[in-house]
Specification:
298 residues; alpha/beta; 434 Repressor (Amino-terminal Domain); Endonuclease, Chain A; 2 domains; 6-stranded mixed β-sheet; 12 helices
């Protein structure tokens, strides 16, 4: 099982696939011929090179032979990469509370060096306190979740947050709608504790938070939440992640990634800068306290 500070199987599959693609192109072999060599099809080679499916060691060996890779050390290195890519990630133990389509994101998140995210409804998951996460789990459940499943959901999120403490730490740059920070998920006391936790989080050099004021007349992002993930490995392209209720979309084409990256850049430059975030959070906390006092008054 991959360690929590090591690239997960998703990232390893992408790296191995990209390496095999370069070897194939260098050898002048078509996808169709490569597919025939492993008793498959051109589309199977395409899926392998994109890292979207697991690797059989027999297939890797046959492709390396076809691509005239004779160095024993290089062959063993790539075979080991294939073995590692087929191992379940550390998040496999939480499979009972996560949908299959989310596993790919967990693998990418574990391998990322920088995540830029735009959030509409909730505090970004990597910055949530357990009480807030517990309330989100209850609110977003598509079916009945048991108490044990909810606690597993909370434990998964807390484990994911360890990436912010690793060495080197994951860098997180979040842009959040103010309305998401006013929504009393879990009740006023939970929200107050969450706002306080955000004030503490932004003191860390690897965490940047910007807030889009509710009073804004309009801004560049009019759709739903999304994230752009960047990786330290040269073989891994940036990936855009868009989550839906029952599925997710992963975009890695350069034009798509550039469009979402430009959107984040435009947002960041047209809303209050990170230096204003602490005062904004304190103001939101004061507003919450005033609302709580008014609701408690006889």
């Amino acid at each position: 099982m991959a360690g929590r500070n090591e690239p997960g199987p998703t990232a390893l599959r992408i790296m191995l696939g990209a390496h095999l693609r370069r070897l194939r192109e260098r050898a002048g072999v078509s996808r169709a011929d490569a597919g025939w060599a492993i008793r498959g099809s051109e589309s199977k080679i395409s899926r392998l090179e994109l890292g979207r499916v697991g690797f059989k060691q027999r297939d890797v060996l046959d492709l390396l032979t076809l691509y005239d890779v004779r160095d024993d050390a290089e062959r063993e290195r790539l075979l080991q990469l294939a073995r590692d890519a087929n191992n379940p990630g550390w998040w496999h133990q939480y499979g009972d509370v996560t949908p299959d389509w989310f596993d790919a994101y967990l693998g990418l998140e574990a391998a990322a060096s920088l995540i830029r995210t735009y959030e509409v409804q909730f505090v970004p998951g990597l910055l949530q306190i357990p009480e807030y996460t517990r309330a989100v789990a209850q609110l977003t459940a598509t079916g009945d979740r048991t108490e044990d499943e909810i606690e597993q959901f909370v434990a998964l999120r807390r484990t994911r947050q360890e990436a912010l403490d690793r060495e080197p730490p994951l860098k997180l740059w979040a842009i959040v709608e103010e309305s998401a920070l006013q929504r009393p998920i879990g009740g006023p006391e939970v929200l107050r504790a969450q706002l306080t936790a955000l004030l503490e989080a932004i003191e860390r050099p690897n965490i940047t938070l910007q807030i889009i004021p509710t009073a804004s007349t309009g801004h560049a992002a009019s759709g739903g939440a999304f994230s752009v993930l960047r990786f330290p490995e040269a073989d891994l392209p940036d990936v855009v992640y868009l989550e839906h209720l029952t599925s997710a979309l992963y975009l890695d084409k350069r034009d798509d990634v550039d469009s979402y990256t430009k959107l984040l850049d435009t947002l960041a430059s047209t809303i209050p800068p990170p230096q204003d975030t602490a005062e904004h959070l304190k103001a939101l906390r004061r507003q919450l306290s005033r609302r709580s006092r008014r609701s408690a008054a006889p």
